Amino acid sequence: MERKKIIYLAAGPPSEAAADLRRLGLHNNGESLRVVVPAELAPQLESLVFLPRNLLWRYGLVSAPWLWLRLMAFLGFSGNADIIVFAPQGQWRFLKLLALALRGRVRFSDGDGMCVPFSLWKVLRRMVAARGPVCVIGSASPELLREILADVRARYPDAPLHGVLPSWYQGLILGLDSSEVVNKPGLALYRRLLRRCVGRGRFRRVVLPWTWENFAGFQWLGWFLPLGRVEIYNENLDAFSGRNLKRLLGHWLWRIRQRRERHRRTLPVGVIGSASAVYLRKIVAVLRAQYPGARLHALLPESLAGPAAGLFDSVGVLPRGFFPVWIQAWRFVRARNEFQCWIVPCTNEPYYRMKWLAFLLPLARRQIYNELADGFAVREPRKLYRHFCWRLRDHLSFQIVAGAAGRHWLSRLGHLFLYAARLLAGVSLLWRIRDRSAPGGRARRFPQAGKALPRVDVLVLGSSRDGDDLSRSVPSGETAGAVRVVRIPDGESWREVNAAIRSSDAEFICLLDPECRLSPADWLHRLLESFDDRTAQVGPELISPDGETLLRGLLLESSGTLVANADNAVRWHRRPECLEVDALPWTCLLVRRRVLLEVGYFSEDSGSIDSRADAEFCRRLAACGWRSLCNRSVTAMHPAVSHFSRAVFGEVTEVIRQ
Description:
Elements: E1 5-10, H1 14-24, E2 33-38, H2 42-49, E3 56-59, H3 64-75, E4 81-86, H4 93-100, E5 105-109, E6 115-117, H5 120-128, E7 134-137, H6 142-155, E8 161-166, E9 178-182, H7 187-194, E10 206-209, H8 216-223, E11 230-233, E12 239-241, H9 245-265, E13 269-272, H10 277-290, E14 296-301, E15 314-318, H11 322-334, E16 342-345, H12 352-360, E17 366-369, E18 375-377, H13 381-394, H14 400-404, H15 409-425, H16 427-432, H17 434-437, E19 456-461, E20 483-488, H18 494-502, E21 508-512, E22 517-519, H19 523-529, E23 535-543, E24 550-551, E25 554-556, E26 562-564, E27 578-581, E28 588-592, H20 593-599, H21 612-623, E29 627-637, H22 641-657
Parallel strand pairs: 1-2, 1-4, 2-3, 4-5, 7-8, 7-10, 8-9, 10-11, 13-14, 13-16, 14-15, 16-17, 19-20, 19-21, 23-29
Antiparallel strand pairs: 5-6, 11-12, 17-18, 21-28, 22-29, 23-24, 23-28, 25-26, 27-29
Helix pairs in contact: 1-2, 21-22
């Protein structure tokens, strides 16, 4: 097999040419290598690379034809040859032409051991490339134009920027290298820019901001310039080619949708009066924040015309009867696109006529809101199905008793069918809590297999009246492991509690009254199981020794009063044994330590330890979006529960009102 022949034309500095020969590994090719070097550089290169004299051929302008014949004879008829040229840009051009006249693959070395193949197309493109500035059309506001210019400067750092700006931009500092100011875009300006679009000094490209602002004359002027490279920028600094018809069509459709969306935001929001004034007040507060500046129009029944009319900007009352409904439906057909959306409150209240009308009338963009003011679009079938399942589990009218109490057989059949559906929906829930369903059953412990118990510091606030025994409060066997007990003596203040929290490095902090009697024995595991990503603190349900007083956290009413929660039918959490409340007493409280670092420690203004500081702490938690949960599977027996539910929380209410 014939060995590849290599011709190396070294026209650069001798030291760099010698280093490049070593990087390419060409000095070991022997008789298949020829090094061509200018005559004045040959002695220096010969002393650096130590090549035989027969391999080092000298080049001169007079002897160039004879050198070309010798090289052609060396190459022969074989095309398996590499011609490598190492020469500075813009120098030794005749030697480069000599390399192009030889037979073989011509490559140019960059001096770092890399060779770039010669491309005639790239040379021609470089010869005819534009050398003028980048033209920026001032078809955007000054603030947006500065951001676009910064992006263009980062993309083309070596190109000067020339701006075509409106006359009212005169005097503004935009960061342009040159600019011209025009009063009004027209044919005169187009002819002046047309001369900058031909020749080697023409514009390299045109940057055209195309936003929702009124610069139509400048936009069309820039797009009609006869240049192949026109870049369009929108208000999000997204750039695309203005000569790509597909991208232009997509931008045009997006601009139409954006204009429609801006117009839709100016329209009023409609609300169907299918809930009482109590729930409408919650929903209206959410709507005011979600649609700022939009007017709220309500369609209310006659029973809500008085209590709920003051919540809305305009009200329409729907009388009973067929003809009023027919007239209202005709009005909605004519004014279908005059509302942003329609809010349909779906609660457990008997407003069935308004709910059916909300789905039968031709309303646009219906959204369902529940008792918690959580809304979703009706057009989303998955969320609609989940809402139906949630309503099926919580609505008491779907019980078998209500089904049996019906008078008509169709009503009974429907209730029985819905009750069967509810039972099927509860199978998965019953399966998850099967370990706790039977009395004395073994509960699922925290942590799960393979996971370590998180570190918990139990702060015992004071000493028990019955002695100094913690075995009834802290789980046995845990104090030597991940649970550490810290005593806070009697008569101390919240300052000592905060100091103990600051010195702790545990993941959870537990405040515990030593007079509490907690059950079951794995109460700490059950409280830890209740935590999720948004839960800050968890507490048990409190019960008095006689069993008459039961307390499941505290709830904050709309009037600002903090009342004891003694009912299980309140805000349910995703876990069936947990209730979401507004505040928890410190009698037994498990809280994340990082939450204390985020929202602040307990207030030290009250001095001695009482129930005022923990209420302020719960108020800061709610303001930051954290949850407080009451775990009903853990019970804390305390002799002062009745005092907590009457006198102490009356003081807490005054703190929260402030």
